[in-house]
């Protein structure tokens, strides 16, 4: 099975034979011509066992729409008499593929290629012409399926996920947007009627913008809409189109104006309000008079700041909220102020009473700052509410402790609260939030919002249900097979490539480690913890050294010069963790040793099995493991020799394809049979037949690809 470096394109070649064939071979090296076919492959061939027989190769497709890209390789290395002629026609399902026959000269290399579709069974046959004196011969064949692109899941220019947009996942149909969150996105003007075209939309959040005018009637077309938030748009009309009014009245739609569901209530509720409002007014007058009396007394003593917020003001506020929660605003929840936490903003959806901080009547500068980054700004009271008073800690990092929470509509989140020991200031925090708001990629943990409430600072991220990679590869409670390990490395590398290559200016993570790679319920990998992320618009950035021991780039540590290659080093250490399931710093009788040294010593003796996680039990493709281990060591080499993240993504994808191919071909016969079949992923020969699935085609040097042909790797 020649692979890289014997095959420059790292194709996997599998031996293939038939009882009606005879295997022949030569020791003479053969040039692979334009397709770079390894000499080891072309040095073997098959001819019919009987002179008058043909060479037949068959494969099947799951349906007639599957297209096949077929490449045939020939080299006649048999020494024959001068008058001998090897000439044959190529048929497929009884029809000539090429008008002219193949005529082979001794020791020359030939190739042909074609595309076929429209059948479920294919029979390729090589038959000698009437004037031929020698039987047909074939050295190698490559058969690929052409991946159809019937629809594009995203715009051609945007292959990245976008926070705030949720789509239906149904590969039998075109994806539809089901949820759209454009809150705090600095939108101006009227609501466009095009929203009515999003026919599968269930949730629409346009809150905290500067929208004005009427609500368009096209929203009546959103038959699946169940939630509409229009709060925080002072110039927007509160009159709903008739269709939305009916849906809301029937209880099928929640509409929010100014932080509360709109006032389309029944007559019964209206009469209840008519009774409650006078009672509330009278109570306010009585309590207000008492409040004024005590206020004047305290003012005379000039000691207002020494006392917490008066309890009667809290009582007034809570009674007001309770009355209206039971009538008009049953969906609005509050978190009553306490002596320990007196947030400036209390209540849900950002619309409620302002309560002064009893410890400091001067408004903090942080609360005066407002940034339009398209992310929700939470009050600290809201964070307490959604985390159940921070009762479920799930981790701790350089920024502070992390708590699990749940938003109003059930989405789980991770809340990172800045610790008192954190050195990050207000302006630095604002800069970090602004950077994070620009990051949108499927393999990066999404920032949902932030909190800047007095001295309380926090970040709110999406919650990753399966924890972090470190727990999976080092803990005893979980096990990851090699295929999943390579996939996690590949997905994480894509996230880092986005930071390095697609952000403007480029961003450097600075703290890549296995505990900062989080896993979703499907074990999809996402890079997290951007608290230390830095811009890198130049060659390098001179900065205070930060990072985690064992993952920290020695060059960066010694020079304080931060580059993208610093992240590459850290990711190389993570890949070694994935291969070995060992920590970056190993403790032994001779003292500590870095994981890179441990791996280098053993690989220099060719003993890769000695470094692998024994829990994998030999269930892996050795070439795939070698590729990842070799790549990891290159990443931890001198900075000038380290690959960039784009090259790392490419290499990891090839390693993943090797492992997937190996899983499908584990029962194939040994390599001493003459005929080889080249393929990339899912096709594998069984009993002389090629059973096909969809897989990506490896681009081959010099091959003209059709416009609708295979997807390049």
UniProtKB/TrEMBL annotation:
Q: Mark the transmembrane ranges.
A: 273-296
Q: What is its EC number?
A: 2.7.11.1
Please write the reaction equations for the catalytic activity of this protein: L-seryl-[protein] + ATP = O-phospho-L-seryl-[protein] + ADP + H(+); L-threonyl-[protein] + ATP = O-phospho-L-threonyl-[protein] + ADP + H(+)
Q: Which Gene3D superfamilies match?
A: Galactose-binding lectin, Phosphorylase Kinase, domain 1, Ribonuclease Inhibitor, Transferase(Phosphotransferase) domain 1
Highest taxon in the source lineage: Eukaryota
Where is this protein localized, as stated in its record?
Answer: Cell membrane
The name under which this protein is listed is non-specific serine/threonine protein kinase
Record key words, sorted: ATP-binding, Cell membrane, Disulfide bond, Kinase, Leucine-rich repeat, Membrane, Nucleotide-binding, Repeat, Serine/threonine-protein kinase, Signal, Transferase, Transmembrane, Transmembrane helix
Q: How does it sit in the membrane?
A: Single-pass membrane protein
InterPro entries, per database record: Kinase-like_dom_sf (IPR011009), Leu-rich_rpt (IPR001611), LRR_dom_sf (IPR032675), Malectin-like_Carb-bd_dom (IPR024788), Prot_kinase_dom (IPR000719), Protein_kinase_ATP_BS (IPR017441), Ser-Thr/Tyr_kinase_cat_dom (IPR001245), Ser/Thr_kinase_AS (IPR008271)
Give Gene Ontology CC terms: plasma membrane
Q: Where is ATP annotated to bind?
A: 416
Gene Ontology MF terms in the entry: ATP binding; protein serine/threonine kinase activity
Q: Which organism is it from?
A: Rhynchospora pubera
Q: Where does the record place the Protein kinase domain?
A: 388-656
């Amino acid at each position: 099975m020649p692979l890289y470096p014997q095959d420059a394109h790292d194709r996997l070649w599998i031996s293939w034979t038939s009882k009606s064939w005879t295997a022949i071979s030569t020791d003479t090296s053969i040039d692979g011509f334009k397709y770079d076919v390894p000499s080891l492959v072309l040095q073997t061939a098959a001819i019919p066992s009987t002179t008058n027989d043909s060479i037949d190769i068959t494969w099947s497709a799951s349906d007639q729409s599957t297209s096949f890209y077929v490449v045939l390789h020939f080299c006649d290395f048999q020494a024959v008499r001068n008058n001998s002629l090897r000439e044959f026609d190529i048929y497929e399902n009884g029809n000539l593929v090429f008008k002219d026959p193949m005529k082979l000269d001794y020791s020359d290399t030939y190739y042909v290629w074609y595309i076929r579709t429209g059948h479920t069974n294919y029979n390729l046959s090589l038959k000698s012409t009437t004037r031929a004196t020698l039987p047909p011969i074939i050295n190698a064949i490559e058969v690929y399926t052409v991946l159809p692109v019937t629809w594009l899941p995203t715009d051609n220019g945007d292959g990245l996920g976008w926070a705030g947009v949720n789509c239906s996942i149904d590969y039998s149909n075109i994806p539809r947007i089901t949820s759209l969150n454009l809150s705090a996105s600095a939108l101006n003007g009227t609501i466009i009627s095009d929203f009515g075209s999003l026919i599968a939309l269930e949730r629409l959040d346009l809150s905290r913008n500067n929208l004005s005018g009427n609500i368009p009637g096209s929203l009546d077309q959103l038959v699946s809409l169940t939630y509409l938030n229009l709060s925080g748009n002072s110039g927007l009309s509160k009159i709903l189109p008739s269709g939305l009014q009916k849906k809301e009245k029937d209880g099928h739609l929640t509409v929010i104006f100014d932080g509360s569901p709109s006032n389309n209530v029944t007559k019964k509720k209206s009469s209840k309000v008519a009774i409650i409002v006078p009672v509330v007014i009278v109570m306010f007058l009585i309590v207000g008079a008492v409040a004024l009396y005590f206020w004047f007394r305290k003012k005379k003593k000039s000691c207002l700041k020494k006392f917490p917020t008066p309890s009667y003001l809290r009582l007034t506020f809570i009674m007001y909220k309770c009355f209206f929660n039971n009538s008009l605003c049953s969906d609005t929840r509050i978190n009553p102020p306490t002596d320990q936490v007196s947030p400036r903003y209390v209540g849900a959806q950002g619309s409620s009473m302002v309560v002064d901080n009893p410890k400091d009547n001067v408004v903090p500068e942080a609360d005066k700052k407002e940034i339009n980054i398209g992310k929700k700004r939470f009050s600290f009271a809201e964070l307490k509410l959604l985390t159940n008073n921070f009762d479920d800690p799930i981790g701790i990092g350089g920024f502070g402790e992390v708590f699990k929470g749940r938003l109003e509509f059930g989405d789980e989140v991770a809340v990172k609260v800045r610790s008192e020991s954190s050195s990050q200031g207000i302006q630095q925090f604002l800069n970090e939030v602004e950077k994070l708001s620009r990051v949108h990629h499927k393999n990066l943990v999404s920032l949902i919002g932030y909190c800047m409430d007095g001295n309380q600072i926090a970040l709110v991220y999406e919650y990753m249900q399966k924890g972090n990679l470190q727990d999976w590869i080092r803990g005893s409670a979980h096990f990851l097979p090699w295929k999943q390990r390579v996939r996690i490395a590949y997905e994480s590398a894509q996230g880092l490539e986005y930071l390095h290559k697609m952000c403007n200016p480029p961003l450097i993570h600075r703290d890549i480690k296995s505990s900062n790679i989080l896993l979703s319920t499907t074990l999809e990998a996402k890079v997290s913890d951007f608290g230390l992320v830095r811009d890198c618009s130049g060659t390098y950035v001179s900065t205070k050294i930060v990072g985690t021991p064992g993952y920290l780039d020695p060059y960066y540590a010694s020079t304080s010069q931060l580059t993208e290659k610093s992240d590459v080093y850290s990711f190389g250490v993570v890949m070694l963790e994935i291969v070995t399931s060992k920590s970056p710093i190993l403790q032994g009788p001779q003292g500590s040793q870095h994981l890179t040294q441990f791996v280098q010593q053993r690989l220099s003796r060719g003993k890769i099995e000695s470094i692998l996680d024994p829990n994998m039990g030999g269930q892996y493709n050795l070439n795939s493991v070698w590729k990842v281990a070799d790549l990891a060591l290159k990443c931890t080499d001198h900075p000038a020799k380290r690959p960039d993240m784009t090259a790392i993504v490419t290499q990891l994808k090839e390693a993943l394809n090797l492992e997937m191919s190996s899983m499908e071909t584990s029962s194939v016969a040994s390599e001493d049979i003459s005929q080889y079949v080249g393929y990339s992923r899912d096709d594998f020969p069984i009993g002389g037949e090629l059973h096909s699935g969809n897989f990506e085609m490896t681009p081959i040097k010099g091959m003209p690809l059709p416009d609708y042909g295979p997807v390049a790797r």
